[in-house]
Design a protein that fits this description.
mainly alpha, 5 helices
Length: about 110
């Protein structure tokens, strides 16, 4: 993952509603969620949700597919894992950690 991609992803997540949306999509897993389901579950107005989904999609943290008349949004787990990998790449000053890099507490 390139540094600019990391900055874009972190900037997208540095907003409370977008962070809640992304976390809801992570919880939903591969099935994803429709905008109406997210709007209801997160108590976010549809127009506001649309804006936040666009930002997360632009940051490549979220994907969108059409399923008939519905749009399904899913967390981009590959991008999420790449972001986590970038952030923990030099964990423990390059030495093997006693814990996994996802929970490194060096």
């Amino acid at each position: 993952m390139e540094e600019q991609d990391v900055v874009t992803a972190l900037a997208a997540l540095a907003q409370p509603v977008r962070l809640r949306v992304f976390r809801a999509l992570v919880v939903a897993g591969a099935g994803g969620l429709t905008p109406s389901a997210m709007s209801e579950a997160l108590a976010v107005a549809p127009t506001s949700l649309s804006f936040h989904l666009k930002e997360l999609t632009h940051a490549r943290l979220v994907t969108q597919v059409r399923d008939g008349r519905n749009l399904i949004y899913r967390a981009a787990f590959g991008e999420m894992n790449a972001l986590m990998g970038y952030l923990t790449e030099n964990c423990c000053q390059g030495e093997d950690c006693a814990v996994s890099s996802a929970s490194c507490a060096c």
